[in-house]
Amino acid sequence: MSQLKKTGLAAVALLLALGIAGCGSESKEVKLTAAQEKAMSERLAPAGEVVLEKDVPSAPVAAASGPRSGDEIYNSKCTACHSTGAAGAPKVGVAADWESRLAQGMDTLYANALNGVRGMPAKGLCMDCSADEIHAAVDYMVENSK
Ligand code: HEC
Question: Who wins on pLDDT, 54 or 44?
Answer without folding.
Answer: 44
